[in-house]
Amino acid sequence: MNSHLPITKLDAIWVYLAATPLLGLTVTLVAYLVAINIYARARHNPLANPVLIAVALVIAALKITDTPYRTYFEGAQFVHFLLGPATVALALPLYRQWDKLKRGALPLLGGLVAGSLTAVISAVGVAKLFDASHQTLASLAPKSVTTPIAMAVAEKVGGIPSLTAVLVISTGVFGAVSARWILDIVRVRETEVRGFAIGVASHGIGTARAFQVSEEMGAFSGLGMGLNGVFTAFVVPVWLPLLLRWL
Amino acid sequence: MLRSLAALLIFQCLGESVSYVFSLPVPGPVIGMLLLFAFAMMRPAAVEAIEPTALELLRHLSLLFIPAGVGIMVSAQAVQGEALAVIASLVVSTTLGIAVTALVTRALLRRQRRNTTTGEGTS
């Protein structure tokens, strides 16, 4: 308080660094390292979800320093970009589990169709009970699948893609945090079934959690996420408008 | 590591191209995943080379969602006024989605197992 000089200087350094992609990238990596440290200390309790903690830390840092999201994203986009290659990489665990997958192909497809339709219909139905607008209903419908597919589907059925992006992330975090308890309550113990259900209902963020549990669970979760992405992309735009008109 | 990163990027490019040329609703990386999977089936030897980097990337999948997650900061106001509807919808539908997928998949797996082992007196 007595001397303004150091603070102005710090400010200047911050403004200087924030103008380059360096800061956004550094903040993201540091927040992630802190988050996985907390997650490990909590002995991988799903409540200590690393995405949730890291996002909260970054948002706090941006709010405190009054840094706009756009400035942050200039650096963070390099991390964001890796989602593409990571999605491609899911082919390898899938390949490793192929024998198991092939044997269970029909049951997995049955579970996919049942789970995917349940998630879409209940999402739209519950929001309708609360008198949500038509646009919100359409934005909610594809929220269980990976962001690019969900945004494209939302646009097709009359939703708001940017709202869908928020809903997709929230769904993923909620699924990653709560899946263990939900699956325990319905007494499903099989690793492959647990992984598959997490992937179908909570896409990549759920899959990230599944990979932290085991590679096998991750492979099945990645499969569930991929299949539901393809299923939703082709099927939801066809029948959702009919459901929305009827509601 | 560089070779496998290059391989992942090549398959992503291929996927993006296929998605664009056929104007598919499925994004490029998902198609890239299917193409890499097909390639792995044809050339199992290539898997050994790509796998370590691929698994390392997947081990830190959580990291990759942080930038998009922070975006909630700017787009959260889009749900204002309907926050309750949206939260209720997310919680109920995600819970049901996980439970129904798991229960249906397991029931079908058990039925399949029973059908293939009929005569052995199981179930």
Describe the structure.
The complex is a heterodimer of chains A (247) and B (123). With 247 residues, chain A is mainly α. Chain A folds into 2 domains: 5-81, no CATH class; 89-246, no CATH class. Chain A has 13 helices and no strands. The longest helix of chain A is centred in the last third of the chain and has 32 residues, at 215-246. Chain A is globular, with a radius of gyration of 20 Å. With 123 residues, chain B is an all-alpha fold. Chain B has 2 domains: 1-64; 75-123. Helices cover 80% and strands 0% of the residues of chain B. Chain B is built from 7 helices and no strands. The N and C termini of chain B lie far apart (49 Å).
What is the gist of this entry?
The complex is a heterodimer of chains A (247) and B (123). Chain A has 247 residues and is mainly α. Helices cover 83% and strands 0% of the residues of chain A.
Proportion of residues in helical segments of chain A: over 70%
What is the string of helix and strand elements of chain B?
Answer: HHHHHHH
User: Largest beta sheet of chain B, briefly?
Assistant: none
Spell out the helices and strands of chain A N to C: HHHHHHHHHHHHH
Shape of chain B: extended
Please identify the structural class of chain B as seen in this structure: mainly alpha
Oligomer: heterodimer
Shape of chain A: globular
Helix content of chain B: over 70%
Beta-strand portion of chain B reads under 5%
Number of strands of chain A: 0
List the helices and strands and how they pair.
The complex is a heterodimer of chains A (247) and B (123).
Chain A: H1 5-18, H2 21-41, H3 50-65, H4 69-81, H5 83-89, H6 91-96, H7 98-103, H8 105-129, H9 134-140, H10 147-156, H11 161-185, H12 191-213, H13 215-246
Helix pairs in contact in A: 2-3, 2-4, 8-9, 8-12, 8-13, 10-11, 10-13, 11-12, 12-13
Chain B: H1 2-21, H2 28-42, H3 44-59, H4 61-64, H5 66-70, H6 72-75, H7 83-116
Helix pairs in contact in B: 1-2, 1-3, 2-3
